[in-house]
Amino acid sequence: MVEPSRKRNRQATRLGALSAWAAWVLISGLAFGAEPRLDVVYGDSEATLDFFPALRAAKAPKRAPLLAFVAGRFWGIEGTSSFSLAELVAAPLRAEGISVALIRHRPAPAHTQPAFAEDAASAIAWLVEHADELGVDPARIFLAGHASGAQVAALVALDRRYLAAENLESKVLAGVIPISGIYDLEPERAGLEELSNYYQLAFPTSSIRREASPVRHVRADAPSFLVLAAQRDIPGFVEAAAGFSDSLRRAGHPEAETFLSIGQDHQSVLNMNSKANPARRHLMGFIGVGEGARTFRDTLAARSYWRNPGPSTEPFWSYTEQIENHPGEPRLTAAVRAFFESGGGRGVPIAVPSYDAIDLFALLDAMGSERVGSGRWLVLTNLRHERAVLDLDAARPYGPRVVIGLDGERNLFRVVDLYQTQRRYSWRESKPEPWILTRSAGAFLYFALPPPASVVSNTFGLFGLTLESFQLTDSDPLAALSDLEEVDRNFLVREKACVSCHQFRGVGARAGHIRASDGELVGGFALPLDEYPPEVWRRYCFEQTGVAAELGVRQVELSPEWQRRLFELVVRERDGAPDR
After folding, report:
1. Contact, 68 vs 123, CB < 8 A?
2. CA–CA separation, 35 and 53 (whole Å)
3. How many Å separate Cα 410 from the centre of its chain?
4. 320: which of 30, 78, 281, 382 is 20 to 30 A away, CA to CA?
């Protein structure tokens, strides 16, 4: 008799909460479109769910994606939080065109595993069966949960038995989004004694805890996983999230990523009303809703690609006898950081306890003249087709080294930073087309002693090197610039290093961008300076701030004197007289 009484009391409390929810909807101005369906009994256990249909714009598709969200605090030991979930999760997401189902399972300690997973699987089956009448796209059903709900969601997606009992396969799920979840229920791994007690109430035996731990069911053919955690989460939860994604990938899963919500804690990470909450952007992007969906998908693809990229520094390691290990030093760390910061990305917070390198001259000798040629001048062309020219006689006293390993990492093309541009060219595109791009460290040139600017003055062409990047020549590759005034030549070659990316007088480079999703060299190539349309060239010289904003790139700082000087230098070269 205790259980029905408890159920009636819980229902009375929930009805009061739902009345408050209805009032909140009316006040917020969202009370239009199809009505929510509350307390739907979805299976034999009499567990219930609430369904909140998407609020569609006039041109929205008739069928909406569905987020099925497993509710519960510590598997129901501390009750459920349906009202707060309706406010924090359902309301903001349905306003963005996502239907939301809040799933309640039988609560612990009156019930124990496998009741929780069985109920969640049964709820999924009900939602699939009623997809037509609910206006749900059956190909876009996502399963999510927070804390204990994340454990249930992940287990149902990974352990085939639960959905199979409902005559479903895990491919019915378009993706899984565990938030601040619990993935290993072994008490000694709980991290907090309090959590261990909850585990034992809901999962009373060691064998049950082991079988209910999602990490023990990872497999390559599971649905895609977006694993979210908060920067200020409960101790151990961030590490658990990262470890869970790692376990999935080690099992061969191609699409399992962890994203950290900066500035959020275990509770605030669930607030989808806040557009400042990164978890909101990540979740919506994963589902494929909103302006940032494409960007997020590109970011996911980039993470996957750069874990095992096409380019590699592994071939350098074949020169075993020439490799030396060196202790790290602040100047090397500063050089790596400067390289990434120059690309306009977020910067890579890197520290280098040690590094592996090959003396540049020893490497060139080992590679042989048949491969790299011969001569005093070394031309380095990196993955982005940026180019650096080095006078080997001038560089020799400063001990140039090719760094091929950082703190045990042998493929430095895995050391990457993402950045985004808005356009490839400011004058060729009518509207922004965001590009997710990447800079990769690769092998790079470093000097044992700091060289003067006359030897090397910038990072362009020095990073992102492969064995194919090295070419020797007897003549100065930049000789065509030798009759320029020294101040102009210095500007083009060293101070701003224009010819590291562009060509002038037929010498220099034609650099591009690396697409983050697949490592391909793509558009936005640096044109020869004298091939820019005249009005475009004028804008580039005199309207730097505006052009940089249009492109979504970092501005090249030019003084008013150099704006005019560079403009006239190129115009004279192209037309024979300055255009004043």
Report:
1. yes
2. 7
3. 22
4. 382
Q: How far apart are CA 343 and CA 323, in angstroms?
A: 29
Q: Is 190's pLDDT higher than 50?
A: no
Tokens at 120, concatenated? 């969640």
List, for residues 238-282, the tens digit of each pLDDT value: 999 999 999 999 999 999 999 999 999 999 999 999 999 999 999
Q: How far apart are CA 18 and CA 81, in angstroms?
A: 11
Q: What is the set of domains in the chain, with CATH numbers?
A: 12-290 (3.40.50.1820), 314-525 (no CATH), 532-580 (no CATH)
Residue with structure tokens 């020219």? 389
pLDDT in tens, 433-451: 788 899 999 999 999 999 9
DSSP collapsed to 3 states, 405-443? EECCECCHHHCEEEEEECCCCCCCCCCCCCEEEEEECCE
What pLDDT, on a 0 to 100 scale, did the predictor assign at position 577?
Answer: 46
Across the range 486-508, mean pLDDT stands at 94
25: left (phi over 0), alpha (psi -120 to 50) or beta: alpha
Rg (CA), the chain: 29
Alpha-carbon distance 373 to 392, whole Å? 14
DSSP state of 88: I
Question: What would the two tokens of residue 481 be?
Answer: 């610039």
Distance CA 239, CA 191 (A): 11
Which tokens go with 532? 């820019």
How buried is residue 157: exposed, middle or buried, by Cβ count under 10 Å (0-12/13-18/19+)?
buried
